[in-house]
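Project outcomes to date are best conveyed with an example. Our students and postdoctoral researchers have been running inverse folding experiments weekly, and each run begins with a structure described purely in tokens. The record below, which covers 75 residues, was selected by the lab manager from last quarter's runs and is presented without edits.
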């Protein structure tokens, strides 16, 4: 069964919020509030954030990238 997409930062604090954006650099789904906050932090300002239109068009590609990164993550 496929796992429902949720905002990564919100999930970290045990909140379930549907994502509307995706940070290409962090490989993390973001809700509207977290995407806005993401742009406020100096170290994150240069990150590429896909909007809802781009997100739906590239969902399968994003899922594959996240899987590959997980497979090679040695942390």
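After processing, the design step wrote out the following sequence:
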């Amino acid at each position: 069964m496929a796992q429902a997409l949720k905002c990564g930062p919100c999930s970290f604090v045990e909140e379930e919020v549907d994502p509307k954006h995706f940070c290409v650099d962090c490989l993390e789904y973001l809700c509207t509030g977290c995407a806005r906050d993401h742009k406020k932090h100096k170290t994150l300002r240069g990150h590429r954030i896909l909007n809802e239109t781009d997100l739906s068009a590239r969902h399968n590609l994003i899922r594959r990238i996240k899987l590959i990164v997980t497979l090679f993550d040695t942390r």
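The longest strand covers residues 21-23. The chain is about 45% helix and 10% strand. The training component of this project remains on track.
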